[in-house]
Structures are given as structure tokens and as C-alpha cells.
Design goal:
260 residues; alpha/beta; nine-stranded mixed beta sheet; 6 helices; globular
Length: 260
Amino acid sequence: MFDLPLDLSNARILVTNDDGIHAPGLKVLEAIARSISDDVWVVAPEMEQSAASHSLTINRPLRLRQLDERRYTVDGTPTDCVLLAVNHIMKDARPTLVLSGVNQGSNIGEDVTYSGTIAAAMEATLLGVPAIALSQHYENRAQIDWSAAERWGAEVIRKAVSTPWPKYVLLNVNFPACPADQVTGIQVVRHGKRKIGDELVERVDPRGKPYIWIGTLRGEADVAPDTDIHVVFHGGISVTPVYLDLTHTPTLQTLRHAFE
């Protein structure tokens, strides 16, 4: 078990993301963190690392830069950022909570397997620090409404850390693409499944060489109501516990029999 419930007034909070140190969502999350604690640290990627998943940089050295007091950037992945923050920058007084986000775009359904935002929370969890990943769904990238995250973020965090979580569990939170006063509520639900779309764009670059760009189209039809996908697309905030032990226990015994 993590050391929860957590007294947020005395919490040492590490804030990170995958959209980069200058991302608007990071500013939103910093404000949320500072509204619940005076001890907030920021360690975020120098450049955008969306869809970096749980990748770790091992084939080159990492550059760490201090931008301000308790504010750093790393020329690596979200996983690198958390690893350096916990085991190097904050090694003398480790964080008691890690917040990752607020991601520019939701992380629902199978998105969690690609997400750098989730990966940062994964790394913290593996290092023994409770972590929450937060993402803001949007319908128009040019006009993202962050008000749902701004208004509800602190409340979600407070409620989340008021109860114990098992070891190797992180929380995945997604805010809907609607104004804060239109949020329909907070629901604890499972991850849903969506049909991955066929948005592969084939074109030719200025030098005449063909290329393929992978899009983000997903099907939203026939999604179960007790899932994060349904909740977020219907104006609610989804909270999903993610378990990092990937072993499928029921299959262990049947598979053992096959190898006897």
C-alpha cells in the first residue's frame, strides 16, 4: 500500500507532463498543485513527447537544466523526467505525490498504452510514489477549454488521495470538453475499448518521396456506459485505477499445464 490517505497541505508534489515545459496544460496543473500545497516542483520534457509511452533514454546522456527555483527541464522522455526528479533532483526529500499533465487531449481506452502522460505516472508508481495522470479532452485543438480541469482538478486530487490505493496502482483522470459548469459529475469507471480508425494519410514530400502519416481517428460508437470513453463524451470526469502488474493470473495455471 502507498502511504495514503495523504495530507495535501504538507505534500511535496512533483508536476510533470509529456507536452513539454511550455505546454498550457502544464501551467494549468501547476496552478492546481499550488492551490493544494506550497511545496511544488516541476520537471518536464524540453520538447513535446506525446505518445512516447514508457520509453527510457539509455543510448545517450541526458541534459538537465534548471530554469528557476524548483523548476527543471530534461531533454528526454516523461519517464526520464520522473526518474531524474525522484532519484536525483529530489533524492534528499522525495515527492509524496506525482501529478502528470494536464495533457492536451484525452487518454481514454487504449490511449493509455501509448501515452507519455500515463507513462510518467507509471514511472512514479514503480518508484513507490503515488501518481495521478490528468488529461483534458477537446473537440477543437485550436480552442481548448481548460476550465473543467481548472475548476475540478484540485477536488478530484483531494478525493483521490483521501483513500488508500494498492501498490502498483495509479489513477487516470480525464476531463470532458465542456465548460466547468456543464460537467455532469465525477465517475469511477473502467477503461473502454474503441475501434482504432483507418486514418493513414499517404502523401509525397517536396523531394518526391512518399510518406505515411498516422492519424488519431477512433470510433466512439457502441461504447459501454460504465467506461471512461462514455463518461468523458457525455460531459463527465472519469477516474480509472490502472494496475501495473500485467500478468494475467487466470491463465497461469492453464498455461503451466500446457508446458508440463
